[in-house]
Amino acid sequence: MTLSKQLKTYITERFKLNYQETWACETVDAVAEDVLPEK
User: Fold this and answer.
1) What is the Cα–Cα distance from 37 to 6, expressed in whole angstroms?
2) What share of the chain is helix, strand, coil (3-state, %, to 5)?
3) Confidence category of residue 26, pLDDT binned at 50, 70, 90
4) What predicted TM-score, i.e. pTM, was given to this entire model?
5) Could you give the dihedral angle defined by the CA atoms of residues 8, 14, 18 and 22, in that order, rounded to the nearest 10 degrees?
6) What is the three-class DSSP state of 10?
7) pLDDT band of 33, cuts 50, 70, 90
8) What one-character DSSP code corresponds to residue 1?
C-alpha cells in the first residue's frame, strides 16, 4: 500500500469520512510520513 493510500485510509477512518469521496491533494505523499502513526 502506498503512503498516500495509507494516509487516505487513516484519515477516512479517523474522521469517519465517506470512502467513495475522491481526493485532490498534491502533497499527500510529502506529509504522509509525518501524519501516520508509528506501527
Assistant:
1) 11
2) 50, 0, 50
3) low
4) 0.48
5) -20
6) helix
7) low
8) -
